[in-house]
């Protein structure tokens, strides 16, 4: 969308008294560009009313302080099917993860039950375990890069590396066959759909996914192995683990989250670094910047997706304003990560930025369980690419990159590269 279109949209926004109503998602010009409205909303309307594609209204937070405070508040969690929260898409369409409509995928949303679930699963995502997995990840990434080079330039880095590495890693952790990755990708997209799939298509995909994963869990009961699902089954058999419904939801949720978001982030990270050649050259000159470069790519990402939603079960004070119970709140972590009150030179990508208190993995009791895994995969990809393909560059102009549309998660459709 052009700047004039964005201005026209802003001029056509309605008002409820003094409260501005903005259409959401916000318009963006290029695939890597930040919405022009972020800075204005943070300074003028940090607790904004937004109209969703469904026509329902929600509240959008864009300041770092407000987003962090709400995400850290243990009283509030993602909407569930019983909340009557704002619908995302027209007619209530959207995947189970989007609509909260599936009891099959339900997990403890908050409080001690949620923390118990996290404790049972989180031991598979510790920094220590990631350190142990790192050599294998590096070997896989090197093989994938070699395969891409063998195919020849130009090539789609997302398809050859970005998608495959997280799939292989999470499939190995869960003990599911990686050769089913195309089916996993389809089911994941359906469950994360806002407008890409119809409700009927989403429900059919969910049914197929449930049947597949239920069969896989049954097989693991018969023949356990050294994987997360087998371990959770054994814990459940002792009476201290998850219920059958929670086990199924956990397996499905981890398979979706374990590859979809990281696969997209790998592509976006590489595109951001190659979009300005000085960034890539700085990394090549100082490989010790890999860790901080990954954190800065996470902070600098404008294309995260829809944002984390929270349902207010009671009135809450946010940004000096009382937001009533029953409100659906959208926390825009990417907007918060461009907050000049927290990040000096927030609009610049500084590969050495430290500290870097970005909110891309959320905050508080619902922060991303797999963030150590995601960080490790991103670091491994950056290390391998900078070492094996120092001449890497985008094969198309930055303006030709296209965003993933219609899903809860953001990304680039392809990342064409040459070397």
Describe the model.
The protein has helices at residues 3-11, 37-44, 64-72, 96-99, 111-122, 127-151, 157-162, 164-174, 181-191, 199-222, 228-237, 244-275, 277-285, 290-300, 333-336, 371-388, and strands at residues 15-16, 19-23, 47-51, 57-61, 155-156, 308-311, 316-318, 321-323, 328-331, 393-394, 416-418. By secondary structure, it is an alpha+beta fold. It has a single domain (3-418), classed as Cytochrome p450 (Orthogonal Bundle), CATH 1.10.630. Strand 3 and strand 4 form a beta hairpin. Helix 9 packs across helix 10 (199-222) and helix 10 (199-222) crosses helix 12. It is globular and about 55 Å long. Residues 1-14 have a biased composition (Low complexity). Belongs to the cytochrome P450 family. It comes from Streptomyces tsukubensis.
Q: Find the CATH topology.
A: Cytochrome p450
What is the total domain count?
Answer: 1
- The second-level CATH architecture is Orthogonal Bundle
- Adjacency order of strands in the biggest sheet: 1-2-3-4-9-6
Spell the H/E element sequence.
Answer: HEEHEEHHHHEHHHHHHHHEEEEHHEE
* Estimated structural class: alpha+beta
- Terminal CA distance reads 31 Å
Oligomer: single chain
The CATH superfamily is identified as Cytochrome P450
What is the arithmetic mean of pLDDT? 89
Q: What does the largest sheet look like?
A: 6 strands, mixed
